[in-house]
Specification:
This is Aminotransferase class I/classII large domain-containing protein. The chain has 453 residues and is α/β, with parallel strands linked by helices. The chain is 41% helix and 14% strand. The chain is globular. The structure holds pyridoxal-5'-phosphate. Pyridoxal-5'-phosphate (PLP) binds next to helix 6.
Length: 453
């Protein structure tokens, strides 16, 4: 090759992409699995990711499969869809979500996206004006960090408190917020912690957001996948206290992450996101019970400096105009999926998860080097702390996971991937027999690596 040719063409990838993609579950799992023993005749047990769709027990309902095939064969959905999504699908989501809310959503509050992933991408992109910062939970779902890095949106972390059932450290939220803070994110039911926030705690989150004049972004991709004491309460219930953007999808509740259908919803009965004038802010203040002038000024300053002159809703629509949309026939299937899926499918899945969570928690607790601060009550995960001081030759969580994968063909996610070094995240949404097998192998691994007494 001619000398200096590569330099002349200057083929180099984007530094932003490079930086952002380092922060992903997939990249960490690839690292964990790199030395896996191909000679091991036992099946690999994947307790690292959250996609149980390949397991027979977790197959989606035939009603959803029929809805997609009906939509496809109708030939009505072969064209491009409007960038916000087709109206029947948005109407169906508005009705589905309004069942759990004290007010009714309109189809105009709903934007269809390519999975919950694109909904996150949309809102983070829209909020990423120069100097803005966003508050993210630790541990959390790393796609937020990755996309914030890609959008040059500064990230500040507040902790979820293991000793309080993974509740948000609201004092930290207040301490981290400044005039450039645009929003805080919660994931409920929780990934990676498997926790479910109480009604009272969510209300406190809303009140804190109101006091600080920030938006709440609520990731409810595991909506209704709860099996403990706390029922699922959507953050939108508190949309009149502070504006809430909810993101979700059919990926987890229907176990079809490959169908790529999600949504972004504005839960904003006071219409704050569509307005930005002084009059509106004052109106908001006077018509509500909340009347402290100090707080009113915070809100006013926020909404004037952050959202004016480009209001959020216009920005969301604008961004959707320049990105791609979910496949039209999947949008076309959505009304049938939401309206016709029967309760027995949901209860079968929730019962499976409840039993799996029980087995997972109880078996992990038998292992001396592992502590689970609380039993999972929702989603598909539990966080477990490693006590490395009683293990012989394990350096940290990544080392633990690499050796576990190499020696036992069991994959779990190192805590660093979700912001908690020397913890691991374990998925219990796998075929029940595989779960027993996998937990047995984790125990054998830990005993084998334990320090001699
Ligand atoms: C799985 C997951 C997503 C992504 O959902 P898709 O609909 O598959 O894009 C978003 N947030 C959290 C917390 C998740 O666990």
């Amino acid at each position: 090759m001619e000398n200096g040719l590569a330099e002349r063409w200057g083929f180099r990838g984007s530094e932003l992409v490079n930086k952002a993609s380092a922060i992903s579950i997939r990249s960490v799992l690839n690292e964990v699995m790199q030395n896996m023993d191909e000679e091991d005749l036992r099946p690999t047990i994947p307790l690292g990711h959250g996609d149980p769709s390949a397991f027979p027990s977790f197959r989606t309902t035939p009603i959803a499969e029929d809805a997609v095939s009906d939509a496809l064969r109708s030939a009505k959905f072969n064209g491009y869809a409007p960038t916000v999504g087709i109206l029947p699908a948005r109407r169906a989501i508005a009705e589905y979500l309004s069942e759990d809310l004290p007010y009714k959503l309109s189809p105009n509050d709903i934007y269809l996206t390519i999975g919950c992933t694109q909904a996150i991408e949309v809102i983070l992109t829209v909020l990423a004006r120069p100097n803005a910062n966003i508050l993210l939970p630790r541990p959390g779902y790393p796609f937020y960090e990755a996309h914030a890095a890609y959008s040059s949106l500064e990230v500040r972390h507040f902790d979820l408190l293991p000793e309080k059932g993974w509740e948000v450290d609201l004092d930290a939220v207040e301490a981290l917020t400044d005039e450039n803070t645009v929003a805080m994110v919660i994931v409920n039911p929780g990934n990676p912690c498997g926790n479910v926030f109480t009604y009272q705690h969510l209300k406190k989150v809303a009140e804190t957001a109101r006091k600080l004049g920030i938006l709440v972004i609520s990731d409810e991709v595991y909506d209704h996948l709860t099996f403990g004491i706390n029922p699922f309460v959507p953050m939108g219930v508190f949309g009149s206290i502070a504006p809430v953007i909810t993101v979700g999808s059919i990926s987890k509740r229907w176990i079809v992450p490959g169908w790529r259908l999600g949504w972004l919803v504005t839960n904003d009965p006071n219409g704050i996101l569509e307005k930005y004038g002084i009059v509106d802010c004052i109106h908001l203040d006077l018509t509500e019970t909340w009347k402290s002038t100090a707080i009113a000024i915070v809100f006013l300053k926020k909404f004037l400096s952050l959202f004016s002159p480009f209001q959020i809703v216009d920005c969301i629509k604008g961004f959707l105009n320049i990105t791609s949309d979910p496949a039209t026939f999947v949008q076309g299937a959505l009304p049938q999926i939401l309206e016709k899926t029967r309760g027995d499918f949901f209860s079968k899945i929730v019962n499976l998860l409840r039993e799996a969570a029980d087995v997972c928690y109880n078996r992990l607790r038998e292992i001396p080097c592992i502590t689970c601060p609380s039993k999972p009550e929702g989603s598909m995960f539990v966080m477990a702390k490693l006590n490395l001081s009683i293990l012989e030759d394990i350096k940290d969580d990544v080392d633990f996971c690499i050796k576990l994968a190499t020696e036992e063909s069991v994959v779990v996610l190192p805590g660093v991937a979700v912001g908690m070094k020397n913890w691991v995240r374990v998925t219990f949404a796998v075929e029940p027999s595989s779960l027993e097998d996998g937990l047995g192998r984790i125990k054998a691994f830990c005993l084998r690596h334990a320090k001699m007494q």
